[in-house]
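Recap from last week: sequence in, structure out.
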Amino acid sequence: MKQYDYIIAGAGCAGLSLLYRMLKEPLLQDKRILVIDKVRKDQNDRTWCFWEKGAGLFEPIVHHQWRTLQFLTENLTKQFTLGDYRYKMIKGIDFYHYVLSEATKFENVDFQYEKIQKIAAKEDHALVETRENTYTAPYVFNSTGFFNPAINEENSLLQHFEGWIIKTPTPTFDSNVGTFMDFRLSQAHGDTFMYVFPMNAQEALVEYTLFSPKVLSKAEYKSGLENYIKDFLKIDDYEIVHREFGIVPMSLAKFPRYPEVHQRIINMGTAGGFTKASSGYTFQFIQRNAQFIVDQLKQGKSPAQKITFRDKMFEWYDRTLLEVILSDKMSGKEVFAIMFKKLSPEKIFAFLDNDSSFLDELVIMNSVPKKTFITAGLKQLK
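Predicted structure tokens:
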């Protein structure tokens, strides 16, 4: 057995965010750390977009940010300038390079590219087994799907998307304005909308996104993007410089933070329930959880994060909204249109960020159809 102080299973956003924060903490940066994943992170496989107040830890690699956003349906066009928030974009490859470059400065950090076959725990340690080796540590921080619950059409929707970064030969875009959601599309497959985030006058991320039980064929994503670029953006001449595809669960299923009684395995990211069920947003929830873990470890405390009453409240809000959509009482398009029509975008973002006040939450609850949401909310209390 090879022994470490900490094992990070999974080198995605959650695992590498935790690693970076550990290496920035003087009390932890000398610990022996193993990061294990089946593949190297050397591809630009995803883009993270999120809102944030002020400058965050990863500000040096923010590719672009927007202060002005717009929300669109056939009956509503709302453009708004954010107050304290900025909507930010980080490219996957920049994130990987940034963290891995920092990690090369530390001889006590090991990377192994092996397929994990088992993650288990004893009273005083946890272990990770691959075909080649067994690794042990007091804690394993897991963001793989090893302990994920069953996902099905009764308890979950999928947020699935294909995004293209397109480049036009002449200046076309206003890089100061991002399209947060454009629902002016066919809703035949479920809640369907576009994100459009220009990074300069000639380049923009255009992302075709759906909330539905099943993914589409490759041809359907392609035609959806082509038709939107032609019919709504009025662009005929462009090249596709990058493509990405992703699936994020939006689920009523319980993702366990600690899959065994000893709490030696700490689930992170989607595996730990840090993907917001109602929207799919994950990046900022990962950052808060990673910082909590670092703060606990440097004090010699358990990194197992207790679920607070406020955590339970926001989880209930999430589950209620998802129940409304899953039960076909209202579509996501209808719910978001009501919220953006009646409420300040700052209040909406704070609510989706689990950072709203109880008074603001009462205002938000009062903005949506009461009977529909009360019925769904009562169901989720059972």
